[in-house]
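#struct-help
A.M.: can someone run this one for me? Single chain, 359 residues.
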Amino acid sequence: ERDMSKVLVVLVPLVITIAAVFFSVHKVHEGYVGLYWVGGALEDDVSSPGFHFMVPFVTRMAEVQVTLQTDTVVNIPCGTSGGSIIYFDKVEVVNELDPSHAHHTVKAYGVNYDKIWIFDKIHHEINQFCSSHSLQEVYIDKFDTLDEALVASLQKDCDKYKTGIKIIAVRVTKPRIPETVRQNFENVEEEKTRLAIASAHQKVVQKEQETERLKATIEAEKEAAVSLIDARRQADVEAIKAELLANVSKIRLEMEILEKEGEKIRSLIENKLSLEKQKAIAEARRYKLQREAEANKLKFTPQYMKYVLYKSLANNSKTFYGPTLADMYLEWLGGESNIPSEFGIVNASPQPPTPPQID
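D.P.: on it. Structure tokens below:
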């Protein structure tokens, strides 16, 4: 018994020590922060993910998620403005708590802060929405705007009270409505579907007709454009031909003018050459005559003239009579009176001719 007592004295403190160490060590997971209460009062310390120590049996620790989380609110009843009771089977709210606001939010609203700001708020907002709209609007007409309205309303209140909660998205399932009403809605939807199909088919037919008209219009415009292009091309070709003909005519006219001018210049040159030639011939003739005159002036001296006269008279076989013939020759001969008788010039008074004798 004494030995057992000694063993217990040793083991009890050891077990207490081990238990104290075991309960004092705790772990905070990734995506969470640790908050501590001592005697029911929330401490200011906020621990990050990892291993930490606390006083066992005195300090209480709780992990608060600060990453994205989805809170699911189920079976939400609400009454429409027309008095119909419908149920939303599930509303999912994706939200995130800012780590810097975790201590303040938990201290003000507890660890289950999302019950106040998510679950209870969803019930309130759904009932507010249903009470101000008819069943038709809730179930069909404005159902697509419900999620956006819930996001805006939840975020507005969270920001107003500085909770640090960020509403990422809200997903709302289609509400459950009475079977008879649902059947009526389905019938209406079927009619709407048929009408939509007929309208779509009519639009398709109209679109095909418009397409055909557009094709015809495009084809006509294309043909008109091609005709216009051909006409312009033909006009351009004709204009080019006319321009070429005009240029050819102009070139020919210029060539004819140049030929005429060439002929005129050639004629002027020929005339000038002929004139120069005539002038040269006249000048040569004038020079020849001048030289002959000068030669004759030197040649026809009085003595030579007398010689020529005497020679001419000597060759004359005719006899001239007259009272002035001797004087004329005397004047030519420079006043000499002794003219030889062989020249046939006799200075005698005119005698009547002797008539011939008739035997």
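A.M.: thanks! The beta strands are 25-28, 32-38, 41-47, 50-53, 59-65, 69-79, 85-97, 165-172, 320-321, 345-346.
D.P.: also worth noting: The first strand starts at residue 25 and ends at 28.
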